[in-house]
Every structure is written in structure tokens, then in C-alpha cells.
Specification:
CATH topology of the largest domain in chain B: Rossmann fold
Order of helices and strands of chain B: HEEHEHHEHEHEEEEEHEHH
Largest sheet of chain A: 8 strands, mixed
Distance between the termini of chain A: 14 Å
Radius of gyration of chain A: 27 Å
Oligomer: heterodimer
CATH superfamily of the largest domain in chain B: Thiamin diphosphate (ThDP)-binding fold, Pyr/PP domains
CATH superfamily of the largest domain in chain A: Pyruvate-ferredoxin oxidoreductase, PFOR, domain III
Number of strands of chain B: 11
Helix content of chain A: 25-40%
CATH class of the largest domain in chain A: Alpha Beta
Largest sheet of chain B: 8 strands, mixed
Radius of gyration of chain B: 23 Å
Number of strands of chain A: 23
Number of helices of chain A: 19
Strand order of the largest sheet of chain B: 2-1-3-4-6-5-11-7
Helix content of chain B: 25-40%
Largest interface: A-B, 25 and 29 residues
CATH topology of the largest domain in chain A: Pyruvate-ferredoxin Oxidoreductase, domain 3
Chain lengths: 622, 338
């Protein structure tokens, strides 16, 4: 905890007090649209259907929501927790506090019970005959078997239907619009009307049972709002896949790995519908499941050399395997896009938990002097935008571009503004046609424009001088093999110059200067909602904080200006070693002492209260 | 060095059960393979402390969690490399590689063939369910052409690999196949694999109930499965069928199924020769689909890698005598300023 605050802080006396995050404690009245539901279930029992139905119904009611699945590395049988954050204020970060816990997994009951916030609700099956040991919470026991059998649920579906019992009870207890649950299930099951009917029978049985038998003792309620109209619910991976389609992806090669797989699943879903030539009926794309990530990287480089917009999606272990090819792509200048949906490493680590731990590795990926362009999407909207922009940047800079998303952003369900059609046409970079080769001449690595970016041709260009040999060995401006010291140095200097050019092409940071702010937060990617919420609460307590959200590396002058402006810049990231902090410290080495690392990672998405506590501790002891 | 004095103890199955709760999906074929392996372990003649299980990534690669032995849960596809280092560094160990059709044949295909080629003293057990499990149902290198999965929505167009044919091409010295639902057969094959010196490659047909439940339907019904399976026995004619009324004959280089009777007798049938030095017959058998063969296709003696390496050292010492560090130093190209 914090030391004696007296005298330790000049600007923000309010910091010493307990800062409440959601839900705000009322005066004993109802708590409306401000709580977190956690459903603890067994992996592979269909609980995801139940949880998404609740999430979608709340969203449909106009209430801001976020759904996070905290799941194990296992196909079936291990515990999984689904968090539904409900927030009238629009805060969608993970919350440390669980107000309503649905306990449907007997093997985790003690942990789940401990999770319930004081005054919260614990919903569990009557069949467990649980001793209701906590006096500070409200227990509701529901007769799951009875409700399922009332709805004629039999055989194997019985286990799946059981989850609908809690949907019915929660719907009744909170005041969720029943018809929205039905709509959500219709959406989920598509045209399989009988399945919807079967599920709704359990929902209704539970709803009626709850109305007749449960006395509501808890303060939690929902009321319709108008805060989600026009928005969509989507995962980052689906948004990224859609962006890639808009960006003109033609070749994807990949190897299955959690948590990137759902991005390729989405591509496989979208592409046949959207990228089939109407006249010939032929596909205008290909998705290849390669034998491993190394092969996938090779395939996209080959396609990039051919001029295709080529991409892969992977996670940390795949990035490790791709490192040699990324070095080739950097050095021989081949455009391609690599999505890294980060999970917890090193090694196999925690394959189903989130992290921002690949930043340093990806930035320098490849042996020798290698610098790579990184993009950091923070929202599904940015996943979509970067789906397009990553291809533009790869083509413009003729280099691999790595997009660092993560499991939380990629696999969880987020509210988003609808995506807009890219405002600008696709940027294909410096590619010469046969006519241009005739008119201008062509040597592959001559820096005609002084920006480090040279002109390339594509196989198929039939000009007699168009062909060149793309090599990973030392070469001169004419792409001819060379071991001359001068050629080597000149080429590597040009690549560095190209990286300087990248600084002005990559997406700029999003900066929010706040009046009276003495300190700043620097963050990137999926920590955005927690940072937003923490800043809001801290501003209420008298500590205004400015914010710069990095959207890419390398950094540009705006980043420098932000760091210069604040005496302390807290660098927030989900890894142990403060990887962005390290990069900024090196690149802004003339601004010592202004960057303070707030790095940390345990596999879970950042919460506002964790960040608030970290900031308070820092501010009160500095 | 101190050694802990140990008395010789008799081990049983339970000694090989680890304290980890076994977590595969209900009905997974891996449970049976695990049970048979634990049954085999006390019988293979190795002290428990000399047994090591190594795996990569995938459902099958969880296997070593549940064996109470030394083990490594390593990285995807690379178990044969670790196992090679281990087996060569300490030839007294019984080293088991547990892999699957994705881990072993896709990402790890390269290492698998080179382990077989070098004849490292390993027991490689490849669980083949013809699908990716842990990443939730993509097609694998052994999936049939046309198999629809999330990653092959219009059906796979990749030709499947036949694991046994691949191992034979790499000249594995022991090549066999068994199935998860025939415990006695599996125990027998695992026992013989353990006894073999050099690379033992065993494919186990394994049922993935969640993502590919109908793959081995022909082999699931105990009453009818023998119509689809040929159990190989060295020196015996290839007869199969519930009523043992069918056999395999060669027509040119092609194996064909014939009904016994009507002038066709056992003497017309192919006779299995597991000890043949040539891989030709084993290769033909590995490609058979109706019926599929179970049993040992090939079991030959070939110098193991560790013996080869040690043999070379022995030879060098025999020729040149034992080395001497001072001599080595003075022999090397050193420019000494005097």
C-alpha cells in the first residue's frame, strides 16, 4: 500500500483516499447498469452460447458491454470464466471485482465463491447442496436438472441446455428484455429454429421459476440505455480479417496456433463470399495451411516478391520460427504482413492468456542489424484499419510489417463503431511497369528519391531490363553479389534511411493533452480501456493525466514532444521487462528520467484499479 | 559422486501413473494408449529412472504429463531433436517420443525422418487421428483429400502422408502400427518396440471424438472390425476377415484382396516377412487401405547411431592410441614467439 501521503504529494491530495472504480457504491439503493457478471463453467459444455446470449441481449438494450473469455489450454473439461462487464459509463476494461458470479463448475466452487464482491450474488445449482458459508453475499440456488427436464431437455443436449438455466434466471433477476435473449440465440444458431426453441424453453422455464421462487435481495439491475445504437459487437481477429479483405489480401499462409486461428477462420469465412471473380467464378485469393510457421513465412515472402498482398497470422512461437525469413524480408526488401496475436511466452508459456510480450523481439526480429515496422491496434476498429494499412506500409516500404495484436483484443468480444470504407486508394509503392523501366531505367537498389526506398519490378514485367535477382547475400545497387565493404555499408545505411522514412509513414500516436496535467501515460494496444478508466477516476480524484497511445514503431517527433512535455511519463505495458519502455529509453536517450516503466503481466487483461494503484504508489512515493 | 543405494524393486503399472489429473476430452483414444503404456513400462527391463518421455505440442504431446518418469514437454515438432541428443548422450536410457500427425508429420516432419534415418535408439509413437485437436479441428497432413474442416471449408486438396511409408522411406529399422481400441495388440507392439535397438516407429490409430469422430469407424465395432484389419504375423500368410476367409495376393506389384476357396488357397497368399532387409514388402503393406494392416511391418537390425558414434571413437583409439592433451596442444598450429 501507499506510505504516508502527507507532504509526499503537492498536486493531488485526493489521491490518498480510496479511489472507487466500478461499481460506484450507492447509498444502499439499486445499482443500475454497473457491474460485472462472471460465469464459471466447464470448458466445452456450450457455456459460450449462454454467455454470448447474455452479452448480446445487454448490448441490444443499449448498455455498453464487453465480454472476455478467460479459458484454459484444453479442448474440453477444464474450468473457464466468462466476464461480462456492464457499464453505463462505457468502461469496458476487465474489472477486478465480480458482482454476480454464476458458479456452474463444481471443481472451482471455492475459488469462485471467494471471487464474489461483498454484497454480490452467488448463483449455483441446487443439486450441489452447498453450505452457504459467506454472510456478506447473496446466494441463489437454482434447480438446474428440474428446469432442464421441465423443458424436455434430454440426452446429450442436456449438458448444453443446463447453461440456459442461468441465462433465464439472470434475465429475470436483472430485468433483461427476454425477447433480446431470443434474438441473440437466433443470431447464434442461424436458421436452426428448433435449437433456438429448445434453448428458449429452458430460458423460459428458469425465468418463470425465478419469478415465482426467488426473492430478489441484491441491488443489481439493468435499464435500457441508448449508448450502443449503431455499434457492432466483434472480436479483433474478425475485424482484422475484414480489414485484410478490404486491403486486398490475395495470399494467406499460416499454421494453426492459438490465439491467431480465429483470424484465419474469419478469412476463410469472408473470402469465398467476397473474393470470387463474378465472371469466371474463380477465387481471387488463396489461404494455405502450411506445414509450419517457417513455411508460412516463406510462402508470404514468395507471394510478396510476386507482387501479391500476402499475410500470415500467428503468435509468439510462430514469430520465433519466422525470424530467419523476416531477416530475409528486411534485407532483400520484400513486402508482407505478419499479424502476431500475442500470448504469454516465453516458450509455450500460457497459450490461452494475453500479453504484450513480443514487442522487443518483433522490433528487432532477425539476426544482424534488423529493424522492423510494428503496428499496435487497440480496438477492433484499428484492427480493421491496420488490416488495410499494414499492406500499404509493406508495399510502400518494401519490408515485412508486423501487426502486434493480442489475445484479449483478438479473441474477446468488443463494442465497436462500424468500420468505414478506406478513404484512400490502396498504396502499392514504387513498382515499375515495363514502360517505366524503358523510360527511367532500372536498378533494383538505387535510391533515386533519397528516402531509402528504391524501385522494384514484379515477375511478369517483360521489359528486358526488368528482371533482377533477389538475394539474401550482400549485394550492390544493381542487386549483384558483392562482398565489398563499401557496398555493404552503403546498403545498410540506406536501409537505415528507409527506416527513418518509415517514421513519417506509420500511424501517429493518439495524444490527449489534459489541462493541468503534470504527468503522462504512454500505452499501446489492448490496455486502452483500462487506461481510459483509470485516467477518468484519477482526474475525478484530482490527478489529471495526459495520454499518448502509441500506434506504431518506429516513433516519430510527436512521441518525443509528448515525452518532453511531461516531467514523468508512465509507460504501461503487459510484459515483465518494460519492452516499450526500453525502446523509448534508447530512442529518447537524451531525455533521461522522464520515462517510468509500469510493466507487469500475469496473463490477464489490465484492470483500471490495478493501474490506479500502481500510479498512486508511484506518485505518492516519488 | 555419491550413489544412492537402491534395492531392486518390482514395479507395477501404478508406479508409472503421475500425480497429474488426466485431461483429455471424454472418450479420447489417448486414455487407452496411456493405460497400455503404463502397463508396458514395468515389463521393458529398464529401471524406472532410465526411462524418458519427450513430446512436442498437441493433444498427444500432453502424454508425458501423465507418465511418472523423467520427461520433457518441449516445442512444436522438435521432440525428435531433443530425444536424439538425449539418447546419444546416454545410450543407457529408454527414450520415448510421443507425437501426433500434426506435430510429427507437419511442423516436425523434417526431424522425424532424420531421427529414423540415423537410427537413433528411440521409440517414436505417433498418434494418428488425422486432424488437429488442440487448435480445434483443422485438417492435418494425414487428413483425407476432401476432408472439410474450418481451415478447409471446401475440402482439403492436400494429398495425405502415410506415416509408415514415410518412416520406411527413411529406413526406420522397426516400423509397426496398432490401434487405441485394441489394448492387447497395443501392449504387444509397444513391448516389442521397446525391445528393439534403433529407431522404433509406431503409428497408433487414435480416435478424436470431438473433431474427427468417424475416421476409424471401420475399426470400432469389435464384431466387424476384423473384416477391415489385417494382423501381420511374421512367416504367416496374410489372412484376414471375421471368418478368416480373405487374403492378400500380389498381382504384379499390386496387392489385391482375394476370397479363399474356389481354387485359391493359403499357399497363393503373400507371406509376411518382417525381417526382410528390403523395405519393399513393408512399403506395399503400409499403403494398404482395405484392409489396413496392424502389427510389425519391419523389424531389422541396423547399427544404431550411438553405437556407430562410439564405434568410431573406439576405432580411432585402436589406430592411434589414447589421446594426450599436451601433445594435442603442441601439435596444433601455434606460433610461439621465442
Amino acid at each position: 500500500m501507499i506510505g504516508d501521503p502527507a507532504g509526499a504529494i503537492l498536486h493531488s491530495e485526493g489521491l490518498a483516499d480510496e479511489i472507487q472504480v466500478s461499481p460506484r457504491k450507492g447509498a444502499g439503493g439499486p445499482i443500475i447498469n454497473d457491474f460485472t457478471i462472471v460465469a464459471a463453467t466447464v470448458n466445452g459444455t456450450g457455456s459460450q452460447t449462454a454467455n454470448l446470449a447474455l452479452l448480446r441481449a445487454l448490448f441490444k438494450m443499449g448498455i455498453p458491454v464487453n465480454g472476455k473469455n478467460i479459458f484454459p489450454s484444453n479442448i474440453q473439461g477444464l474450468p473457464t470464466w466468462f466476464h461480462v462487464r456492464v457499464s453505463y459509463e462505457g468502461f469496458v476494461a476487465r474489472s477486478d471485482s465480480a458482482e454476480i458470479v454464476i458458479a456452474f463448475n463444481q471443481s472451482t466452487v471455492q475459488d469462485d465463491l471467494a471471487m464474489v464482491a461483498p454484497g454480490g450474488v452467488f448463483l449455483y445449482p441446487t443439486e450441489w447442496n452447498l453450505a452457504e458459508s459467506r454472510e456478506d453475499i447473496i446466494y441463489y440456488a437454482l434447480p438446474v436438472n428440474l428446469l432442464v427436464s421441465q423443458a424436455n431437455g434430454q440426452g446429450k443436449v442436456k449438458d448444453y441446455l443446463a447453461n440456459m438455466a442461468y441465462v433465464g434466471v439472470i434475465t429475470q433477476l436483472l430485468g433483461i428484455n427476454r425477447s433480446y435473449i431470443e434474438e441473440a440465440l437466433q443470431y447464434h444458431f442461424g436458421h436452426r429454429a428448433s435449437v433456438v426453441t429448445q434453448n428458449m424453453a429452458v430460458v423460459d422455464a428458469a425465468f418463470q421459476w425465478s419469478a415465482a421462487n426467488l426473492t430478489k435481495q441484491d441491488p443489481y439491475q439493468v435499464e435500457p440505455l441508448d449508448l450502443t445504437a449503431g455499434n457492432i459487437l466483434i472480436t479483433g481477429n474478425e475485424a482484422a480479417a475484414l480489414g485484410a479483405v478490404f486491403g486486398g489480401v490475395t495470399l494467406t499462409s499460416w499454421y494453426p496456433i492459438t490465439p491467431s486461428t480465429s483470424m484465419i477462420d474469419a478469412l476463410n469465412d469472408f473470402l469465398p463470399k467476397l473474393r470470387t471473380d463474378p465472371e469466371s467464378g474463380q477465387a481471387t485469393y488463396v489461404v494455405i495451411q502450411a506445414e509450419d510457421e517457417l513455411a508460412a513465412a516463406g510462402m508470404i515472402m514468395g507471394a510478396g516478391f510476386a507482387g501479391a498482398r500476402a499475410m500470415t497470422a500467428t503468435s509468439g512461437p510462430g514469430i520465433s520460427l519466422m525470424s530467419e525469413f523476416v531477416g530475409l524480408g528486411y534485407f532483400s526488401e520484400i513486402p508482407c504482413v505478419i499479424w502476431d496475436i500475442q500470448r504469454v511466452g516465453p516458450s509455450t508459456g500460457l497459450p490461452t492468456r494475453t500479453s504484450q510480450g513480443d514487442v522487443l523481439f518483433a522490433y528487432y526480429l532477425g539476426h544482424g542489424d534488423t529493424n522492423n515496422v510494428l503496428l499496435f491496434p487497440a480496438t477492433p476498429g484499428e484492427c480493421f484499419d491496420f488490416g488495410v494499412q499494414a499492406f500499404d506500409l509493406a508495399d510502400q516500404l518494401q519490408t515485412p510489417v508486423l501487426v502486434l495484436s493480442d489475445l484479449d483484443l483478438g479473441m474477446n468480444t468488443w463494442m465497436s463503431e462500424p468500420f468505414s470504407y478506406p478513404a484512400e486508394p490502396i498504396k502499392r509503392g514504387k513498382v515499375l511497369s515495363a514502360e517505366e523501366v524503358e523510360a527511367q531505367g532500372f536498378f533494383r537498389y538505387v535510391d533515386r528519391d533519397g528516402d531509402g526506398i528504391t524501385y522494384r519490378t514484379l515477375p511478369g514485367n517483360n521489359h528486358p531490363r526488368a528482371a533482377y535477382f533477389n538475394r539474401g547475400t550482400g549485394h550492390n545497387e544493381k542487386a549483384v553479389y558483392s562482398e565489398k565493404a563499401e557496398d555493404w555499408r552503403k546498403n545498410m545505411d540506406r536501409l537505415k534511411r528507409k527506416f527513418e522514412t518509415a517514421r513519417r509513414l506509420v500511424p501517429s500516436p493518439i495524444i490527449d493533452h489534459v489541462d493541468g496535467a503534470r504527468i503522462g501515460i504512454i500505452a499501446f494496444g489492448s490496455t486502452l480501456p483500462a487506461v481510459d478508466e483509470a485516467r477518468f477516476r484519477l482526474a475525478e480524484s484530482g490527478l489529471p493525466i495526459s495520454f499518448m497511445r502509441l500506434r506504431s514503431l518506429p516513433i516519430n517527433e510527436e512521441v518525443r514532444a509528448f515525452v518532453e512535455r511531461y516531467e514523468t511519463n508512465y509507460v504501461v505495458e503487459l510484459n515483465r521487462d518494460g519492452q516499450i519502455h526500453q525502446i523509448l529509453t534508447v530512442e529518447l536517450s537524451d531525455l533521461p528520467g522522464r520515462l517510468v516503466s509500469l510493466a507487469g503481466m500475469d496473463g490477464l487483461p489490465l484492470t483500471a484499479s490495478h493501474l490506479i494503484n500502481q500510479l498512486k504508489e508511484q506518485e505518492l512515493t516519488r | 559422486m555419491t550413489t544412492v543405494p537402491l534395492e531392486t524393486v518390482t514395479l507395477n503399472r501404478k508406479d508409472f501413473v503421475s500425480d497429474q489429473e488426466v485431461r483429455w476430452c471424454p472418450g479420447c483414444g489417448d486414455y487407452s494408449i496411456l493405460a497400455q503404456m503404463q502397463k508396458v513400462m514395468p515389463e521393458i527391463g529398464y529401471p524406472k529412472e532410465n526411462i524418458v518421455f519427450i513430446s512436442g505440442i498437441g493433444c498427444s504431446s500432453r502424454f508425458p504429463y501423465y507418465m511418472n518418469t523423467y520427461g520433457i514437454h518441449s516445442i512444436h515438432g522438435r521432440a525428435p531433436t531433443l530425444a536424439t541428443g538425449l539418447a546419444v548422450a546416454n545410450p543407457a536410457l529408454s527414450v520415448w517420443v510421443i507425437t501426433g500427425d500434426g506435430d510429427g508429420l507437419s511442423i516436425g516432419g523434417n526431424h522425424l525422418i532424420h531421427a529414423c534415418r540415423r537410427n537413433i535408439d528411440l521409440n517414436i509413437i505417433l498418434f494418428n487421428n488425422r486432424v488437429y485437436g488442440l487448435t480445434k479441428g483443422q485438417y492435418s497432413p494425414t487428413s483425407r483429400v476432401g476432408m472439410k474442416t474450418k481451415s478447409s471449408p471446401m475440402g482439403s486438396i492436400d494429398r495425405p502422408l502415410e506415416p509408415l511409408a514415410l518412416a520406411l522411406s527413411a529406413e526406420a529399422s522397426f516400423v509397426a502400427r496398432s490401434i487405441d481400441n485394441n489394448p492387447n495388440h497395443l501392449v504387444d507392439i509397444l513391448t516389442q518396440a521397446a525391445a528393439h535397438k534403433g529407431t522404433s516407429f509406431v503409428e497408433v490409430y487414435q480416435n478424436c471424438l470431438i473433431f474427427n469422430k468417424d475416421e476409424w469407424n471401420d475399426f470400432s465395432d469389435r464384431k466387424s472390425r476384423d473384416d477391415h484389419l489385417l494382423y501381420l504375423e511374421h512367416g504367416q500368410p496374410m489372412i484376414f476377415g471375421v471368418n478368416r476367409d480373405k487374403g492378400i495376393r500380389l498381382r504384379g506389384l499390386e496387392p489385391v484382396v482375394v476370397e479363399l476357396g474356389n481354387g485359391i488357397s493359403e499357399s497363393d497368399l503373400l507371406v509376411h516377412d518382417a525381417f526382410a532387409n528390403s523395405t519393399t514388402l513393408a512399403y506395399i503393406l503400409s499403403r494398404l487401405e482395405h484392409p489396413s494392416v496392424l502389427g510389425i511391418l519391419r523389424d531389422v537390425e541396423r547399427l544404431s547411431y550411438a553405437d556407430g558414434v562410439l564405434g568410431q571413437v573406439k576405432e580411432a583409439r585402436a589406430k592411434k592410441g589414447p589421446g594426450d592433451l599436451a601433445t594435442l596442444y603442441l601439435d596444433s598450429d601455434i606460433w610461439e614467439v621465442k
